[in-house]
């Protein structure tokens, strides 16, 4: 596991006990929810074949949009408790309808969180491969704006 996101170098730690002393949590401290998200991400890779190379092809916020669709489904069901699972994907769903598989509130939130992790990992890989430039910043802003607009459409309102 890499701790680069926190500004630490893996080589700084000689043992797990040193990590724990410095405030890192052990695997036993991970909640069931976090564990389920990690397992879903691994399932996406192992069972569905959504490898990092595959994910890297989705450069227009598709994974974030898919996560928003699952989150939107949960929000919609919360506001319409008598409603059944929606069988058709929302218009903002970025892929073929056969990949839309809502299961229930918790499962859909786990799936959404795993998709968000996949998008963050893709962004990290893309960032590591390119020099910083104004054009790159403009593209990232455009992707974020697309995701905000998709979320607003799903939720039926404006996002500030």
Q: What would you say this structure looks like, in words?
A:
- This protein is mainly alpha-helical and 160 residues long.
- It has two domains: 1-30, no CATH class; 31-155, no CATH class.
- Helix content is 56%, strand content 0%.
- Helix 4 (62-79) runs antiparallel to helix 5 (105-129).
- The longest helix is centred in the C-terminal third of the chain and has 25 residues, at 105-129.
- The chain starts with 15 loop residues before the first helix and ends in a 5-residue tail after the last helix.
- Mean pLDDT is 80; it is low at 1-8.
What keywords describe this structure?
2 domains, single chain, 160 residues, 6 helices, mainly alpha, disordered N terminus
What amount of the residues lies in strands? under 5%
Distance between the termini: 36 Å
Order of helices and strands: HHHHHH
- Provide the low-confidence segments as ranges: 1-8
Mean pLDDT comes to 80
Radius of gyration: 18 Å
Taken together, the total number of domains comes to 2
* Biggest sheet layout: none
Structural class comes to mainly alpha
In short:
The protein has helices spanning 16-21, 32-46, 52-55, 62-79, 105-129, 134-155. It is an all-alpha fold and 160 residues long. α4 (62-79) runs parallel beside α6.
Q: Which helices and strands occur, and which strands form pairs?
A:
Layout: H1 16-21, H2 32-46, H3 52-55, H4 62-79, H5 105-129, H6 134-155
């Amino acid at each position: 596991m890499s701790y680069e996101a926190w500004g630490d170098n893996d080589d700084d730690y000689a043992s797990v006990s040193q990590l724990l002393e410095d405030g890192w949590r052990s695997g036993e401290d991970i909640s069931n929810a976090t564990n389920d998200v990690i397992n879903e991400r691994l399932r996406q890779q192992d069972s569905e074949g959504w490898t990092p190379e595959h994910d890297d092809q989705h450069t227009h916020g598709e994974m974030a949009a898919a996560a928003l669709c699952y989150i939107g489904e949960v929000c919609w069901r919360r506001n319409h408790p008598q409603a059944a699972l929606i069988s058709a994907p929302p218009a903002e769903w970025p892929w073929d309808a056969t990949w839309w598989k809502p299961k229930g509130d918790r499962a859909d939130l786990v799936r959404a969180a795993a998709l968000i992790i996949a998008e963050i990992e893709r962004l990290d890989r893309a960032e590591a491969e390119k020099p910083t430039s104004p054009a790159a910043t403009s593209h990232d802003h455009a992707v974020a704006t697309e995701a905000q607009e998709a979320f607003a459409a799903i939720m039926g309102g404006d996002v500030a």
